[in-house]
Every structure is written in structure tokens, then in C-alpha cells.
Amino acid sequence: MKTLSPEMQVFLEYLQERKLKVTPHRQLILDTFLAHEGHRSVEDIYRTVRQQDPRVGYTTVYRTMKILTDCGLAREIDLADGITRYEHLYNHQHHDHLICMQCGDSIDRYRSPARRGVRAARVQGP
Q1: Check whether domain 6-92 has CATH 3.40.190.10, yes or no
Q2: Disulfide-capable partner of 29 in 34, 64, 100, 117 (CB 3.0 to 4.6 Å)?
Q3: Helix residue ranges, H only, 18-112
Q4: In this structure, are residues 95 and 77 in contact, taking their beta carbons and an 8 Å threshold?
Q5: How many helices (H) and strands (E) does the chain have?
Q6: Which pLDDT belongs to residue 111?
Q7: What is the pLDDT of residue 113?
Q8: Are the C-beta atoms of residues 25 and 52 closer than 8 Å to each other?
């Protein structure tokens, strides 16, 4: 018997609680999303999923990413280029995104919670 990942358990529970269908396409989209770290657009995920199953539609990917966001597995991010991207949220450390104003590349910046508190105190003042 195959053990489910914690992410798959969260996903399946979310679908069952809302009486949504557990489909092979939704499971494939989740697996594809989880297999790649970083910031991925629906288009990126769609292209990758279609290589494995050409029957998966763009709308299915779009709606599944909305479900992944709603159940806490993914987070929408805006890198100021008009394209919504998604990153892993479940069991991942908080981080900021630094965006190059010339080329648009982004990097993740991790800071300790204590440093975030110091910065927030400095910005907000006493």
C-alpha cells in the first residue's frame, strides 16, 4: 500500500469535505506542482502536465491551482509582470521576493523571524 504525502492528504481531505471529485487529472496537477520548486505560472504547469497526459485541459489546471491555493498548499504571487505565479506554501518557510527592475528575475530571500520583527519595529517605530 502506497503512503500518501502530507500534501496529498491535505488535498484529498479538502476535496472530500467540499464533495469535489478526486480525479486523476487533479492528482497529476498536484504531483507536477509539488515536483518543481520555484514560481510557476498556470501556463508552465499546463505545459508540463500535457507532456504526461495530453487530455488535461488548461481550465482544469487553472481551477486546480485555485483549489491548491484555497486548501493552503499553494500561494499566488505577483512578481510585477502581470503573470500570476504559484509557489509551495504548505510546510515551507516564509520568504520575501526580490525582483530585478532591469531583467525581471526574482530570487527568494529568507530571513529569520527575529530579523523580520526587528525590521518591522524599525519601519513602524516605537
Answers
A1: no
A2: 64
A3: 24-35, 42-52, 58-70
A4: no
A5: 5, 5
A6: 59
A7: 52
A8: no
Grid coordinates given for 120: 518591522
Please, how many CA atoms are within 13 Å of residue 59, restricted to the half-sphere of its CB? Answer: 0
Distances in Å between the Cα of 103 and the Cα atoms of 55, 93, 99, 100 are 35, 26, 8, 6
Mean pLDDT, residues 117-122 taken together: 46
Question: How far apart, in whole angstroms, are the C-alpha atoms of residue 46 and residue 25?
Answer: 11
The residue ranges of every structural domain in the chain are 6-92, 93-126
Q: Does 13 have pLDDT greater than 80?
A: yes
Residues found in the chain: 126
For the entire predicted model, the pTM comes to 0.71
